[in-house]
Design a protein that fits this description.
- The chain contains 7 helices and 9 strands, in the order H-H-H-E-E-H-E-E-H-E-E-E-E-E-H-H.
- It has helices at residues 9-21, 29-35, 47-53, 91-94, 130-146, 215-221, 227-241, and strands spanning 65-72, 83-86, 105-112, 120-127, 149-154, 161-167, 176-183, 187-196, 199-208.
- It has a 9-stranded antiparallel β-sheet, with helices on both faces.
């Protein structure tokens, strides 16, 4: 990925702001819960198992450092919403790795790479009963087919922002895979979502462009999907849950 000399401290400050805004409407219950199985099953995985299935710094390619990992047990409640997203059925795509039901377990790792200090990367594993994991993927796929432009705002803010989802060609990984991005003049987020049995792996990269950049400068700053990282994480999940 090319880096532009036009990146300034403005972009770095904007990155902090976007990190706070990146949390989503995890309570999109009208779309997730209504389409999920009527009687959701408990996850067959433990939070410890999923945390163990995350890549370590020694296992990550291309100089990534794992600097923070967290895990939540099946009894942990879903995250509360921090954003309003319209159309509401598109909220599930804004932050798909958010734990949506108490039956699921989750483990997340934040990544850092000095060569791309303005980019943020994360790995999240969410464990479901396999039938519910398939339903979750179907919900994401259905939303991706319908969602284009969205508007979103923090619940405690009156400001509204706009962005657009774009479906992308997914790699052939796991049992099923989705890939898409969320683009705006000021930020970019790329998502790769891979299901292996009842475990869904989410790999996300995002960056903030700052203000006053041209289309060419934004293109130079857009992070690429980290294919080696994604394949390494999916391979470790497969070794863990197969």
């Amino acid at each position: 990925m090319k880096r532009s000399a036009h990146v300034t401290a403005v972009a770095l400050l904007a990155l902090v702001a976007c990190s706070a805004e990146g949390k989503t409407e995890a309570d999109a219950k009208g779309t997730i819960e209504e389409q999920a199985s009527a009687d959701p099953l408990p996850s067959p995985y433990t939070a410890k198992e999923l945390k163990t299935a995350l890549l370590t710094t020694a296992q990550t390619p291309s100089g990534f450092e794992v600097y923070r990992t967290t895990a939540s047990e099946p009894s942990s409640p879903p995250a509360s919403a921090s954003e309003k997203v319209r159309p509401t059925e598109c909220a599930v795509l804004r932050n798909p790795e958010a734990k949506s039901r108490a039956e699921t377990v989750a483990a997340t790792a934040q990544l850092y790479r000095a060569s791309d200090e303005l980019d943020q990367h994360s790995l999240t594993l969410v464990g479901w009963a396999e039938t519910d994991a398939k339903t979750r993927m179907a919900v994401l796929r259905n939303a991706l087919e319908k969602c284009g432009a969205i508007q979103f705002s923090n619940i405690d803010s009156n400001g509204t922002r706009e962005a657009r989802f774009q479906a992308e060609k997914a790699p052939d990984l796991g049992d099923e895979t989705l890939r898409y991005s969320l683009n705006s003049p000021t930020f970019y987020q790329g998502f790769t979502v891979v299901r292996v049995r009842g475990v869904i792996t989410y790999v996300k990269s995002d960056t903030v462009f700052g203000t006053g950049l041209t289309d060419q400068q934004r293109a130079e700053l857009t992070p690429e999907h980290q294919e080696r990282l994604i394949r390494a994480q999916v391979a470790k999940v497969e070794r863990t849950v197969r």
